[in-house]
Amino acid sequence: MIAIAVFHVLMFLLGLALVTRAVPVERVSDMLGYLHNAIGVSMPPLGQVRTIALIWIGATIIIVDGCIFLLFFITKMLS
């Protein structure tokens, strides 16, 4: 349970750092570049990097929360 809370706090702080521009856009662009190259999609323009990074953070939170919900839902039904 603590790990879930820590994950959400870290994701919130990362999103807050992006919104307040505490992280340089070049560093965010490099990180997104690695992610997009691993997936095989093209990089967004430099002006949209922060928005795309926030979308990735939101998608990650939704995926992790969905997996945790399904885990609890399935184990509750089996017991």
Task: Give the topology, please.
Layout: H1 2-19, H2 25-39, H3 49-78
Notes on the protein architecture:
The chain is mainly alpha-helical. It has one domain. The chain has three helices and no strands. Helix 1 packs antiparallel against helix 3 and helix 2 (25-39) packs across helix 3 (49-78).
The major beta sheet can be summarized as:
none
From the spread of the alpha carbons, the general shape counts as elongated
Poorly predicted runs: none
End-to-end distance: 20 Å
The helix/strand class is: mainly alpha
Number of structurally distinct domains:
1
The percent range for strand residues is: under 5%
Percent of residues in helical segments? over 70%
Describe the oligomeric state of these chains in a short phrase. single chain
The number of distinct β-strands equals: 0
**Number of helical runs?**
3
H/E series: HHH
Q: What is the typical, i.e. mean, pLDDT?
A: 92
Radius of gyration (CA) equals 16 Å
Characteristic terms for this protein:
mainly alpha, 80% helix, elongated, 3 helices, 79 residues
TL;DR of this structure?
The protein has 79 residues and is mostly helical. Helix content is 80%, strand content 0%. It has one domain.
